[in-house]
Specification:
The complex is a heterodimer of chains A (106) and B (231).
Chain A: H1 2-7, E1 21-24, E2 31-33, E3 38-42, E4 49-50, E5 55-60, E6 70-73, E7 78-84, E8 88-89, E9 94-101
Antiparallel strand pairs in A: 1-9, 2-9, 3-5, 3-8, 4-7, 5-6, 7-9
Chain B: E1 10-11, E2 19-28, E3 38-48, E4 53-58, H1 66-77, E5 85-90, H2 95-100, H3 124-136, E6 142-146, E7 153-155, E8 158-162, H4 167-180, E9 184-188, H5 197-203, E10 207-212
Parallel strand pairs in B: 4-5, 4-6, 6-10, 8-9
Antiparallel strand pairs in B: 1-2, 2-3, 3-5, 8-10
Classes of the chains: A mainly beta (106), B alpha/beta (231).
Chain lengths: 106, 231
């Protein structure tokens, strides 16, 4: 309905209680891809703020009890805006996306 | 429009007529179970005189159910007397994928949002993308393509646009993003934005807002209470 008001298709002003918090994904570092197959444990929940170097997820190896889990960390600081859902993850799957505050139009 | 442009898909309503019309696109699908069968893809057109055209689409990916729910409710609620201009609603773009609960079509493997602008004589997924591009997007002033996380992702509730090189187009698109009023507004640099509906719309110098409402197959249509939410 807000979009219809914005275009003038419906009369009135859009009802926006809070302005959208603007974020972006300027580099490939925003997309954290798994480099291994295994059991996926998210360590930084959706909506949380993370700092560069923080642990984002672990991948465990069910059939290999002696193998330590693989740790996924973030190269950038920001907001966790997306997370992988299924219990299993495959090499190349997107584990999480970290977004930074948007600086404005260049 | 020439006959060659649309050899297969037909639309059973006149999108230029005033009033509220529910109809279908008919996509021929001859198969073992139904020799002269087809896929009727529901659309709704609501029009009242001259004015802007807004196109709403859902289930561009078939495992994203929240868009179809919103648009099914919207098509019931919105009347021609409420508007000036035209609203075109396609609750489910990739219907065969939607019926199967899959992101991609079980018929042709098509990922609708990697099939734009489509092909008139292509696969079923490509034909639908082509029809939507050449009949609806060209007529639209704003396109809102509703996505969610589907079966593999959870997302924050946000409206997504691309970082556009043309500053006028960026300003207009950003204004649309803000008007949507989602808790978060994402200026997304994609891993690969080719063949997306957004890119086709941007290429037509239109304004596109791709709201991403939240959650993998969980219905979250209202903004969630979130840490770090914008004030």
């Amino acid at each position: 309905m807000n979009i219809l008001k914005h275009t003038g298709v419906v009369a009135g002003d859009p009802d926006i209680p809070n302005l959208s918090h603007l974020i972006h994904t300027p580099t490939g570092d925003a997309f954290i891809a798994s480099r291994t197959d295994g059991l996926f444990e998210i360590c930084a929940e959706l909506g949380s703020h993370v700092n560069a170097g923080d642990l984002i997820a672990r991948v465990h190896y069910l059939e290999d009890p002696d193998r330590a889990p693989t740790l996924m960390t973030t190269n950038i600081s920001g907001l966790v805006v997306c997370r992988h859902v299924p219990g299993l993850i495959t090499r190349g799957d997107c584990a999480a996306v970290i977004a930074e505050d948007w600086p404005g139009i260049k | 429009m020439t006959e060659l442009e649309f050899p297969k898909i037909t639309c059973d309503i006149d999108i230029d007529s005033d009033g509220k019309q529910h109809g279908s696109l008919t996509i021929p699908w001859s198969r073992d179970q139904s020799s002269w069968g087809s896929i009727p893809l529901p659309i709704t057109v609501i029009k009242n005189g001259d004015g802007p055209t807004v196109l709403f689409t859902g289930a561009n990916h078939g495992d994203e159910y929240e868009g179809p729910i919103t648009l099914t409710k919207s098509r019931a609620k919105l009347e021609a007397s409420d508007i000036h201009g035209r609203v075109i609603i396609v609750p489910v773009l990739n219907l065969t994928a939607f019926r199967a609960g899959k992101r991609t079509s079980p018929i042709d493997g098509g990922n609708m949002n990697r099939a734009f602008p489509g092909k008139a004589d292509g696969t079923i997924t490509e034909m639908i993308a082509h029809f939507v591009t050449t009949r609806f997007i060209v007529e639209a002033d704003i396109v809102v393509d509703i996505h969610t996380g589907g079966r593999s992702m959870n997302l924050l509730p946000m409206s997504i646009i691309h970082d556009l090189p043309n500053s006028d187009q960026m300003a207009k698109t950003l204004a649309t993003l803000k008007a949507f009023g989602a808790p978060y507004g994402m200026i997304l640099t994609e891993l690969d934005a080719r063949e997306m509906i957004d890119t086709v719309v941007e290429d037509m110098e239109r304004s596109l807002s791709q709201p991403s409402l939240a959650a993998a197959q969980h219905l979250v249509l209202r903004p969630l209470k979130l840490p770090n939410a914008a004030s």
